[in-house]
Amino acid sequence: MTRDLRSARYGAVLTFVLGGLMVGTMTVRIPALTDKLGLSESMVGAVLLAWGLGALVTMQSMRRVMARAGSRAVLRVGGPLTALGLLAVAFAPNLPMLMMAVAFFGMAFGTVDVAMNAQGSTVERAYARPLMNGMHAGWCVGAISAGALGSLSIALGLSFTANLALVGLVSLPVMVVLGRTYLPEAPAAGTTTRTRHRMPPIVYLLGAIMFFAFMVEGTVADWNGLYMRDELGAPEALAALGYPVFEAGMLIARLTGDRLRTRFGVRGMLTVSGLATAGFFAVVLVAPAALVAVFAMFFVGLGVATISPLTLSLAGTATGTPGPAIAQAGAMGYAGLLLGPVAIGFLSDATSLRTALGIGVVLGVLIALASRLLPHGEPAAISPLPVMEPEPAKAAA
Questions:
Q1: CA 9 to chain centre
Q2: Buried b / exposed e across 180-189, counting CB within 10 Å, b at 16+?
Q3: In sequence order, what are the residues at sequence separation of 6 or more whose Cβ sits closer than 8 angstroms to the Cβ of residue 268?
């Protein structure tokens, strides 16, 4: 059983790594995509919206699917489909085909995003100790690797198509093999009927906290570089450092987050994380020079990094099986990732970009306040529950 659990844990972490790698690869090569198909900025926006809406639609429908099928079955289908979706994006010859490909990629990834977090919660329960932050660190590793591989591909002269096809072709068989490592959730009586209706109130509270945190992450990803260049006068190379530095802070926080959770508890960690996010985002906005703002971005990453893993971990303990609750909270959080950058755009048109980015400070305060409504102490959820062992190797295929 120990060996099976270790395999399940490594399989879950590698699933996060591959998710970050595939999504990150598409993102970092968007400039090459615009060159390939001659896309305008508005067309790129439409492409990204199709990807995001595809993921959101799937995530919104996953409650019932997860209750019936479980994370293992969903990952065994959704993982390879995501890799195939990346291949479809790579070879799309024109804008209409690209829109269909990115929508399919987004829908496939939406299933993986929910299911890999549910699988992480299942493994966490089996281990009877916090593990979710370490799994989300795998996402950061994948995203950073995507940036490094993208830069290498550009240096070697690889096209958008070749770069995405290479990652997709490597990810496809790995996702298939990882399907043999996943743990099935123990069935919970009555889950399929309850998930059709309402969740416990704590799930919606966690979804709201995650919504605020993802708004911060989306805001940094989409607007940080422009703010550094236009408001602080940073050269392009320095302005581009803000997001990687932010991701580095997130990686470090997630690598240490599980140990901190064991010591300080979820409620305390979320409160401190919200206050740190608000405080350091304020430093970014009042920074006298771009270099100071870039340095502060590292600490914003440290602050916000553990919020989504902690909320998803708690959501996974709110009901008999983790999948439906994680699907609900995750869909709420992902809406923040989509809506945050849009809200900044409208606010910056009405005021200024610096003023609009003040929403990051407000969101950090809201996270801290909402976290005070959570119960004290660790949930009974981080304790061993009956978990079935993975299938023998012969039957796993």
A1: 18
A2: bbbbbbeeee
A3: none
233: left (phi over 0), alpha (psi -120 to 50) or beta: left
Confidence category of residue 383, pLDDT binned at 50, 70, 90: very low
Q: Which amino acid is at 207?
A: G
Rg of the chain in Å (alpha carbons): 20
Domain boundaries, the chain: 1-183, 194-377
Rounded to 5°, angle at Cα 87 from 82 and 90: 130
Residue type, 358: G
Distance (Å, rounded) from C-alpha 362 to C-alpha 332? Answer: 18
CATH number for the 194-377 domain, one of 3.40.120.10, 1.20.1250.20, 3.30.70.920, 3.30.465.10? Answer: 1.20.1250.20
Tens digits of per-residue pLDDT, 82-132? 999 999 999 999 999 999 999 999 999 999 998 998 898 888 888 888 888
In this predicted structure, what is the pLDDT of residue 197?
Answer: 57
In 3-state terms the chain splits into helix, strand, coil percentages (rounded to 5) of 80, 0, 20
1-183 shares its CATH topology with 194-377: yes
- Where does 1-183 sit in CATH, by number? 1.20.1250.20
CA 341 to chain centre: 16
Report DSSP state, residue 357: T
| 144-165 core/surface letters (b: 16 or more CB in 10 A; e: else) | bbbbebbeebbeeebebbebbb
327-337 residue pLDDT tens: 888 888 888 88
Give pTM, 2 decimals.
0.79
**Exposed, middle or buried by CB within 10 Å (0-12, 13-18, 19+), for 215?**
buried
